[in-house]
UniProtKB/TrEMBL annotation:
InterPro entries: HDOD, RNase_Y/CdgJ, UCP036888_HDGYP-like, YbaK/aa-tRNA-synt-asso_dom_sf, YbaK/aa-tRNA-synth-assoc-dom. It holds the Pfam family tRNA_edit. This is HDOD domain-containing protein. PANTHER family: PTHR33525, RIBONUCLEASE Y. It comes from Pseudomonas asuensis. Residues 196-396 form the HDOD domain.
Amino acid sequence: MTDVAHTSEPTPHAPAPIKEMLDRLGVSYREVNSTTGLASNAQRVQAVLLDDAAGVLMVLFPQNQLLDLNRLSELTGRTLTVMKPSRLSQALHKHELKVLPGLPTLSSSPCLYDERLLKEPNLLLESGEEDVLLEVSVDDFRRLLAQANPGRFGEPLLDIQPNQTRPEADDAEITRAVTHFTARRIKQRLDETLEIPPLSKTAEKIIKLRVNPEATVDDLAGVVETDPALAAQVISWASSPYYAAPGKIRSVEDAIVRVLGFDLVINLALGLTLGKTISLPKDNPQSATPYWKQSIFTAAVIEGLARAMPRKMRPEMGIAYLCGLLHNFGYLVLAHVFPPHFSLICRHVEANPHLDSSLIERHLIGITREQIGAWLMRNWEMPEELVAALRFQAYPVYDGPNATYANLTFMAVQLLRAEGIGSGPAHPIPPELYERLGLTPEKAQECLSRIMGAEAALRELASQLPH
């Protein structure tokens, strides 16, 4: 008999067709609310549908592993990629499911499972309904795998250790990674190997203005107006419904004085200019949030969170906004530096939605987007606040120099992931992080709600930028 776990709130149940199938097979199970946090990742079964010209393959592996597509290719002799979201949606809709259950008996497709799943006494499978897991014994799980084939194709996460705390080692790790993937395997100076394009003249002028304490609105307007595309974007920003400026914005100076302010415009202009220094990659993970949409939403949330902080704790607003605009800049750099391998990163991101990109990148190329993005900003002599934000944005316990900017970036990214903006799982925000920033979960949610309430206006801003 099914034993339903009791929670303080009504819990949804597994779909009726899934229950009927398990009952028919004589498989005992218990419904568990996935939000209780009681399960270890070793117990949770990650299911993914892959395909190629030969057909569909279901793959099952524990969530404490990274699905390595290279090993899977060696094992199967096939070049498999994740099924397109549209096809997956059709398959789920056919059975009236919301998420893919880890049940190989659900379809006629062949199934491959990582044999290390069988080391756990009990396993937790997706039921097909969000937030509802099915706990089954390993013996019952074996019965579900009667027609499936075992293998070893996952990489334990304990064997992948992104460098979160030692930025002094970034130069050596980036050099090693670039050298490893350089066709001729010749060690060169780092800046020669990376072949990063130089800063534009506009970016150089803006950087000089930023460090000039006597810079005026006229100086800034003059620099922005030398770049017609940038000038048009600044005016469009000020004219956006998001800022609800009264009257028509007729000039860059108008945008600065009446709507955006000097600090925001100089950092906005710098962020937009740097963002266009490296082209957007043509390949992206399926269902990825467009680069500029993610950047603009993150910048808006960071700005909102910063304004909600106690006045004496607030960071510099313009820099905070810049951190949001450029938080994912390392993604562009990876695509630029490792073009043959960037597609492999994208395919692994698709196959491992339960993992942060840092684990995937560390496993495949030895460095992360956070490392390489921060390295480039430091070499371009960007503000140290921005360098810290990019470098430590995935490390919520960071409390070193300029920690406020890194902490705000982490919080904004996680809040937006929970809303489906960005890639990777949404992690809980530690209570001590709220305390460090002088915020509460309620205040953070209020900020997020205000931003999501202006979603249409922010989408319009993002649509004006290169895609």
